Amino acid sequence: MSRIGKIARRSFLVGSAAVVGGVAFGYYAYKRPVANPLLAGLAEGEAALTPYVKIDSTGITLITPRADSGQGAYHVQAALIAEELDVELDQVHVDPGMPDPAYYNTALSAEAAPFRSTDDGLVADTTRGIMDAMMKFMGLQITGGSTTVPDSFEKLRLAGAVARETLKAAAAQETGANVADLTTAKGAVILPGGGTLAYTELAATAATLDPVNNVTLRDPSTWRLVGKEMERIDILAKSTGTQRYGIDFEVEGMVHASVRTSPRRGAMNSYDATTARDMRGVIDVVELSDGVAVIADNTWRAMQAVNSIDIDWAPAAYPAEQAEHWQALSDSFNADQQDSRFRDDGDVDAALEGAEVIEAEYRAPYLAHAPLEPISALVQVSDDRADVWTGTQIPRFVQSNVAKLTGLDTDQVFVHVLVMGGSFGHRLEDRVVREATQIAMQIKGTPVKLTYSREEDTLQNDTRQIAMARGRGAVKDGRVEAYDLGIAMPSVIASQMGRQGMPTPGPDLQIVAGAWEQPMQIPNYRVTGYRAPELAPISSWRAVGASTNGFFHDVFLDELIHAAGADPMEERLRLCWHDASRKTLEAAAEMSGWGTDLGPNKGRGVAFCMSFGVPTAEVVEVSNVDGAIKIEKVWVAAEVGRVIDPINFENMVQGGINWALGHAMNSEITYSDGMADQRNYYDFEGMRLAQSPEIFVRGLENGDTVRGMGEPMVPPAAAALSNAIFAATGQRVREMPMAKHIDFV
Amino acid sequence: MKLTVNGTEHDVDVEDDMPLLWVLRDELNIKGVKYGCGVAQCGACTVHIDGEAVRSCQTAAADVWGEVTTIEGLGTPDAMHAVQSAWVEHQVAQCGYCQSGQIMQAAALLATNPAPTDADIDDAMNGNLCRCGTYPRIRAAVKTAATKLQEV
Ligand code: FES
Ligand code: FES
Fold first, then answer.
1. Which ligand has the shortest distance to the CA of B40?
2. pTM of structure
3. Chain A environment of B88 (Cβ under 8 Å)
4. ipTM above 0.95, yes or no
């Protein structure tokens, strides 16, 4: 049974409230299901009230609380509301709203519980329910884990429907018509005689009515917007240079700042800013808890001045050299550091005993997020109020951290979320806001915009985790018989949540995500997570644990399949017991012409990974051009339940493939003398246009659960590439970046 | 010093070596031009000087040799340049942060090479990084823009 189905049957109370000159709709209370005894311990009074639709005489505003870092989240959320509200997307304003516990993210918690997405049993669903309640309790208004679509799919359509029906009731009251005779379209109620009353004209009356709560969501077959090709609401602005991002935002009287904090992520011993103070445009040099900032009248002048400061940095708390980081991982494969063994089918030890054991070791490096827009934050602090304007995925954390730093109450801190020029997980951290707040506190009343230089952004990046895996396996009678994978990495969640002062007890699911929960039926099958010690600071990078583990899990499977002499596609299909997952493999096989002859110097590789509940199969085709690999084509088939906007879906998936393959080929962050060796795009470039392949995408809609696709395309991509390189050359590439081992065109 | 941007002459009082990028963004408040790397590695800051695509982060204010055109001067939401309408038609943008630079680069390419081959597009556009990976749509939109421009 789908989770969405269950949520729908819990009671929603949708309300409305009068706002200045109009009405706000879609306040709803999320109540615990009374019948479930396992949830009875939860506190009452958790009802959360939240607006999604605001209408006054001047216009209609849709509130889209999930941040948009480029994946079209505002557009998708607006489309879901508009579908039921009967407005056109060019008739509305979209506003992310202020941080509020009511906007908690239900879907994220479903991924935090240690149950496979394919597991719909009672215990699994109950535990996910408890995690829901915890998320709500903590008020995590987080955009992440590909959860925007699942979280919004039901809620936002309900909010739109309630608003529509209440506006009809208002029209009935004003005209004396029977509600049953009223219809709606294009932001207006249509009266029986054909006349219309705009929603904006009805707002004042609607505000006086009890909201109409007994709404039925429309049948998908009648949808005007959802599932259809739409023009993204921001596409015009983003094609004409008129979209404003966080880095562009200005307020009256603002000054600029640039900062340097320790590239070793530790303390500052001393600094000499004599030169900086005399540079043109410099207003002040201020000391922060772990670095120094320059305030100036222009971004470039601030950056020039801060770079002129001589600084002595204390040593790093983590190992200074990259080789020591790898050694720490290598040393972690032991019983004491075992973090989890959620998968342990059959008897792996017995199956390997006496068999010809196939062994392999894999590595995945630290990676920066490096969204094209460097991070920035504009902060103004006064005695009774602080304002923060920034592109963030964690507005609630930002609010509470600024409150702590300034000594203000959280309700005196106003976080204005701005459009982001990419994130990929980068904006799940908020150090830029904390630094801007420290600077703003030293010139109270003056708004300060802190902009990182690209170099500072790279040096201060909380990177993707470094990870290592060791596989041992055996084959029998042309089949995979035993599969034993150990994965070692530091805990991403502990590092990330640690910076927010939040404890994270228990095993870290991300250490084995993308590996332990794969719907494969191998007779003897084990996945063990080992927790490496904390090394350099790490954070969620697109697809988090699965970004490394999808590579490990599937390449090792491919090695065993080849050892068994089986066809990579046929054997995966035979091993996969989950119907929706099999369909993605079948679709990828059909799209790519799997099994047809490619001719010499070419190869195809297939890989599969289920992550964030989305089974995703990919085929990569490469050619071998005089010893250098060229990625020609990629096919992607993913089961997402429903595709909200086919164009944006395709674009996002193609982008995610380029993201995954670009880093897999070319990029890594390494440490020397306690600092990242990389500074800018010349040594961390990911994918460029000339290397990017043709990419074909199919979203399957067989499941009954709606899933987000921001990340699941990432985990199989590098594996499919490695498998294709093997098919074309006979060389097995077990480490990223692959360019360390093989040339690319 | 004097600078002509999008047809308007401005008198700016800046250091000779301040990059054009920051003169545009911080002194003239023209925000369509973007900062991505500051070292000619990403192309987000691409503008035209006398019709030629240049990286404004690597062009010192004192060295600007002609009239500057930014994305705002290429076309507006009400009157788009053919390249911009091709970008809308293909819905190229994800985050969109690179797209001002992509569009300026593509417009300069098509001004000198009205019918670029795939290899020409790869060559001309390879310096414009898109971290969101919208390259398939960039390729398609350049071709559509080429067709549009030939029709006029
Ligand atoms: S900012 Fe000029 S090329 Fe990147
Ligand atoms: S659209 Fe985001 S960097 Fe290109």
1. 1
2. 0.91
3. 231, 235-236, 239
4. yes
